[in-house]
Design a protein that fits this description.
By secondary structure, the protein is α+β, with helices and mostly antiparallel strands. Among the domains are: 134 residues, no CATH class; 135 residues, no CATH class; 46 residues, no CATH class. It is 26% helix and 22% strand. The chain contains 14 helices and 25 strands. It has a seven-stranded mixed beta barrel. Strands 18-19-17-20-21 form a five-stranded antiparallel beta sheet. Helix 9 crosses helix 11. The chain starts with a helix and ends with a helix.
Amino acid sequence: MKLAKIIAVGLSAVMLTTGFSLSAFAAQTNDSSVSAPQFKTYDALYAHAVLNSEDTQAWQSWQSEHDEDFNEKNSDKKYFFLPSSADSEKVDIYNAYSSAITVNGVKIEPNSTASVHYKTNEEYSVRAGGKNFKLVFMKSTAESAVYINNDNADGNGTELMTYLNSDKSNSASATAAIIDADGTIETADVKKIKGRGNSTWGKAKKPYNITFKDNVTIGSMDKCKKFSMLANYQDDSLSRNRFLYDLSDAVDMPYASDSRYVDFYSDGYYWGSYQMCQKIDTGKTNLLSDIDDKGYLNKDGSINENFQFVCEVDASANDDDYHFNSSSGNPITIKTPELAPGDTGYNEVKNYVKEKFDAFYNAIKSSSANLADYADVDSVTKIYLINELGKNWDSGVSSLYFTYKQDENGDWKFFGSPVWDYDNSLGNAKGVEWELGNIGVNDYEQYSGWWCKYKGKDKNSRNTNNVMNLISRNKAVLAAAPQVWFEDFVPAMQTFMSSGVSEGEIYSSDVYYSYIKGSAEMNYKSGWLLNTGSWIANHSKLNVATFDYSTGKYTVSNTVTKYSNDFDGMYNYCADWLTSRAAWLSSQMYDEYEPTNPRLENDLNNDGIVDVRDATALQLYIANSGTLDAEGVKMADNNKDGIIDVRDVTALQLIIAQ
């Protein structure tokens, strides 16, 4: 059975040949407080995301596992892939069959709803439509669930996802329900949903852009209208983009897309675990909230002398994009203002962006130019360190964004941001063998070794037009990198390596795991693959590395950590690769680091005062419940015995008392 053709599973072979025989969807339920699905239903059972809800959007059909082509597998075994909002003991089930069925001792009449007790991962026997089925309930842990429905997306009776997936240019409106883990339901109208991405669009699990009619909030994110829903199909941890986006936010990059793990459903079908992100777009309630996409125009319609814009180094730019080739040969897409031929200022804007980008590029490449005259060095250094930390395969090739705007002094400069597209990073990709050989890199999959200064460069020549390569070798960036690394990145990484931190811009690794674990299990049980091709690196083992910030000692474990070929193994590999990479980078920049603002001895929390709060900060650090920056860790060994433990807390308390 081709699920892509029917979307809502549970159709019989007879229905396939008779053109979608439908059961009524507005029938009365056993419980008048519970409504039936608003969209078309087929011979199937449907479960609601929230117990005893009157909502008509957040229903899902039971479904079988599928393969990468959406062929149904083991059709006699059905699953309910419940969102995190579902009650842990009972679920409302709607019976769309024409005869009564019984689930776990509860009889449900045709076109009616009843509440059923369940336990996750247990099998229940159900006879429906003259067939016997095994039914298993699974429950997500994701921060939110998103239901988007339109059972007539093309006006000819085609369900939304069948229509969208047939062509990336297709778009449609829809209705939606957004449900957070606590059961809060927000209904919304979708103004437009369509496919997105370049190479990722060609994969079985596809990504989408969504524009809501009004601002919505998803999993406590700030209200926003425009979102990108990432499939993370080639990332078996489902988390590489999330880690690096949140890290970018934690180090105070100008624009870092906030995001949440979500489960995605459409017209009753579960599509898998996705990452719902703020889309790279301008406007007061969007990611680039301070960028005016109309700022290029004066009130009289003439072109402004200077104006804000966002551009992308984009090797995939084509004639459908608003783009140009810079004097360096890099294809540059203008993301905002986004104009079409015939629009006022179309050529003037393109020429202006080209002029400014060429000057910026030449300043990066020059050994004598002052980069600070053209760019915000801090943000450019940070976007370099994000790419270096991730060993991002696409570094300097695509998804490299720059924003041109005025700094705090009113000077027009390029800012390195927004960050985007890091699924082929953090040890995920093997890389292209001929390219790695050409640039002289043989350790790409390892967490050690420099990367950005080799990417895009022939090993026999220093000539390159790869923008990130040139940034990584710019004297201003190299001078700033150690301070930025130890004062911004290291504290954020220490939060990631701690335990139980679920507030702030970046969480600890165990918290991310707790959110994604159940969603990932449903994602892979539904049919998506852990290993999606030869492009993915070997994630089976690693010698984990650590760095002692008090002594500057870099250590690689003699014991090989082995990772199971399941989600847990793939997640742990990604997290360990990230922390080991951070340890290696720290070892390389440690000797060059000098604190920007030397501080008081024993001021562990860097608040300018040595008091009991420093002792508390040290206690939390020892308990893996808090972080110290690099200087704080250096000071933490108060009794000078080479170990940071509770005895140092006692020594610090005595110092404070004196």
